[in-house]
Design brief:
eight-stranded mixed beta sheet, 10 strands, alpha+beta, Nucleoside Triphosphate Pyrophosphohydrolase, 29% strand
């Protein structure tokens, strides 16, 4: 799929309507991964809703890429993992979109002037009790990043064609409270992209590519 077709499809299939499940504890986000969904049913009964937002920054190169980060090892949540720029939605954020843009600026110095928001992807729940609303955005090349090492240790780009190829969507599993929990993984070179990040990438594939 060309860059032009990808963004055209995304603009017709995504909106900026905020799903009620972002803040409603009675609504459990469905990720499309049955193992992850079973785990979320348990977590939802034990932890309060923690709304969060991330930026799925699709860089508009001739061969598009997605900007990812590696989180710092000392963080309380998802330490050392590959992630999208993002974090908790603050009371001062006017919207999940605003939170995603703020976090991208704080974590990697990605300026808003380079970002053209396209729409929200589906709400995604994690084992840490977060309900994440991803913003898909078209990012103009030519930006300069400034890494905030208190939050991330690296930022890098992965080809969109690799991440959107279902051949690269591996399903791994690990034990969660005595039962097997499945999750997506998309290893790329020395990077192990897995868990919520890989799950959201799989949702992006299903929304834009597979139908």
């Amino acid at each position: 799929m060309s860059s032009t077709e990808f963004f055209a499809r995304a603009r017709t299939r995504l909106t900026f309507d905020v799903p009620p499940g972002l803040v409603d504890p009675h609504i459990i986000p469905r990720t499309g991964d049955s193992g992850n969904d079973r785990m979320l049913e348990i977590i939802a009964r034990e932890q309060p809703v923690r709304p969060a937002a991330v930026l799925i920054a699709v860089v508009d190169h001739p061969e598009p890429t997605i900007l990812l980060t590696q989180r710092s090892a000392h963080l309380n949540d998802h330490a050392g993992q590959i992630a999208f720029p993002g974090g908790k939605i603050d009371a001062t954020d006017s919207s999940p979109l605003d939170a995603a843009l703020r976090e991208a600026g704080e974590e990697v110095g990605l300026k808003r002037e380079f970002i053209d928001p396209v729409g929200y992807l589906d709400l995604y729940g994690t084992a840490f009790g977060f309900r994440i609303l991803p913003t898909v955005a078209k990012v103009k090349p030519g930006f300069t990043l400034a890494i905030n090492e208190a939050e991330v240790v690296d930022a890098f780009e992965v080809p969109l064609s690799f991440l959107m190829d279902p051949v690269n969507h591996q399903v791994h599993s690990k034990e969660f409270r005595g039962m097997a929990r499945s999750y997506y993984a998309m290893p790329f070179a020395e990077r192990y992209i897995w868990g919520a990040t890989a799950g959201m990438l799989r949702v992006l594939y299903e929304r834009i590519y597979s139908s």
